[in-house]
Amino acid sequence: MGQARAQLLASLAAIYLILAITPVTGNPTDDLEIMWGNAKVVTDSSGQQAIALTLDRSTSSAFRSKKTCQFCRIDIEIKLVPGDSAGTVTTFYVITEGAWQFHDEIDIEFLGNSTGQPYTMHTNMYARGQGGREKQYKFDFDPTQDYHKYTIIWNKDWILFLVDDKLYRQIKNNQIYGAPYPYYYPMRVYATIWNADDWATQGGRVKTDWSQAPFTAYFRNYRAISCSPFNNNPLCLPGSGWFDQQLDASRQQQLAQVNSNNEIYDYCKDPKRYKNGPPPRECGLQ
């Protein structure tokens, strides 16, 4: 799935190099720039500025952050594609810039579905090209009816995925036990919408209905706090609440609730993946 997106990025790289990057100005998108496709700044129904990413038969669309970060908190509000979104994937992720086989990545992908069927939130992590750390979740709400806040927190000890400030997933830095963890290189934020009907909905059994196009997702209220080792931002100091965040009792309770009520796939628990040996060591360390 990550490789498919890499192929998409590569296929559009020539277009991106030829076309001038369109700077997105004005609140809340001063830190973002449109990359390709039918992406544009709009005013939503509440009067706020947002970026609309649209997918049709001819093109996908994307934007990215103007700056990279190494250890950061990224917040963004997203309103997903309504109706029959089967085959589409809306993404929000951070990724290093360099050779794909050695890349780091932390991603959230929203897998579309047929009308009336729920979205799947697909999360994953790559470190030096090692991925396959997928977990998937369902929501207790309809993510197409209104905006919801999605957060990636990446610090030296943890990666945390939050939805409306509720913890859905944590990945602990277990490098001392040989587990991969993105630690050494800065990453850039990307958001895209693209067609992935070869795998996205029910394993590719449900295809994109292009008669429903265009498919549009909306993004607003982007915020990025970067905390590199030499950053003096007060939000990055010990005790600030997120940069050195640990899982307190409240977060542990949230995680237990999500694992019980919302989790639909965990790579550590998939017997089909480990027929010839045990799961990765970090599965016993989480």
Automatic annotation (TrEMBL):
It comes from Dichanthelium oligosanthes. This is Xyloglucan endotransglucosylase/hydrolase. Catalyzes xyloglucan endohydrolysis (XEH) and/or endotransglycosylation (XET). Cleaves and religates xyloglucan polymers, an essential constituent of the primary cell wall, and thereby participates in cell wall construction of growing tissues. Belongs to the glycosyl hydrolase 16 family. It is an enzyme of class 2 (transferase). InterPro entries: Beta-glucanase-like, Beta-glucanase/XTH, ConA-like_dom_sf, GH16_AS, XET_C, XTH. Keywords: Apoplast, Cell wall, Cell wall biogenesis/degradation, Disulfide bond, Glycoprotein, Glycosidase, Hydrolase, Secreted, Signal, Transferase. Residues 17-219 form the GH16 domain. Transmembrane segments: none annotated. Residues 1-26 form the signal peptide. It is found in: Secreted, Cell wall; Secreted, Extracellular space, Apoplast. The keyword RNA-binding does not apply.
